[in-house]
Input
Amino acid sequence: AVREAMDKYEGRRLAAVVIVSDGQNTAAGAQADRLLAARQLATARGVPLFTVAVGDPTPPRNITVSQLQGPGEVRKGNTASFTASVGYRGFDGTPVTIELLRSRAGSDAWESTGVTQEITLGGDEELGVPPPSADGQAVRSQDVTLLVPAGEVGTFTYKAVIEPRPEEQIVTDNQAATTLRVSDEKVSVLLVSADS
Output
């Protein structure tokens, strides 16, 4: 943007260029290199470059259910295993409850499956979750396994949900869904073995 502004007014005398920013890098590429290149361009053209920081420099505290993975199909009477990926920032050590809901495909009527799991966000090296960052602001994640019996034939949408916390700044990403078909059809399996 700095190069574009300077090119637009090339040949004219610029008193200065003022950059107003929240400090968040929204473009691809190394941010430090881009800022250095802008400063060098302004210096080469003899234009003072000033920056004004606006907004809150603290990233928002957030809990998210980024995805729900599970089988595409199971037989009636078996157990379906779902994995919910839970991301969070600023909530290390916070206990939350994740609940698995279900609806028939095409319906908006959600019902509880009775499957819930209480977890504590962060700091469990045994589960492969690294310890929290010094400032608690790094985005971290952990996987949660939810098991539900497949007792009814049909196609269902399952949704993993974590109730938003009052101190969360983003509350629209606390759920993720996937589809599961429960069948009672027999499956033919051919087993070929070289052993005699």
